[in-house]
Known about the structure:
Layout: E1 4-13, E2 16-21, E3 24-29, H1 32-38, E4 43-52, E5 57-62, H2 65-75, H3 82-91, H4 94-102, H5 106-110, H6 117-133, H7 142-145, H8 154-163, H9 168-176, H10 185-195
Parallel strand pairs: 3-5
Antiparallel strand pairs: 1-2, 1-4, 2-3, 4-5
Amino acid sequence: MIGRLCGKILEKNPPEILLDVGGIGYEVLCPMSTFYEIGAETNLELHTHLHVKEDAHTLYGFITIDEKTLFRELIRVNGVGPKVALAILSHLNVSSLISAVSNEDDELLAKTPGIGKKTAQKLIVELSDRLEKLSLSGSVNMSATRSINKNPNSHKASQALQSLGFKVKEVERMLSAISDESLSTEQLIRKALQNK
């Protein structure tokens, strides 16, 4: 596997970069976020993922390790290939993607070219548990986007409300309106249902 490349940019033709590494030119497909980060730089370090198929070996490159990690999670979702994953990361940055999944915002995900409503919902279902377990090097992670309030019982209340059939986004809205941090789980649930 080729995990990282450092070299000089010879050509930029979005979504492809031709990178000279020790006299060898590597064609690397990158999300638009990487192109925005590069700017006018001529030397570049990319975290890469080598995708192997019967008829092609394709390199995908990312400016941050978090993008590479999310790319790998995206291509694990049934029906999402590398090109669709690249489109998603071109449309949404790391924090926006994590926020969209944690808030079950299928409409935002469906705005990505090549993603329909059903695929967006499948992404949310399959990624929500996996993204919570990821340790991203950036400051953004799933648990940070889900913090409701400082009450230690809010997590249990959130789970209980979700098991009653409320969506994560609804639960967050209901619980975020409660400022009292001393309430028990039962009291939080009662108050949250009143905020419905």
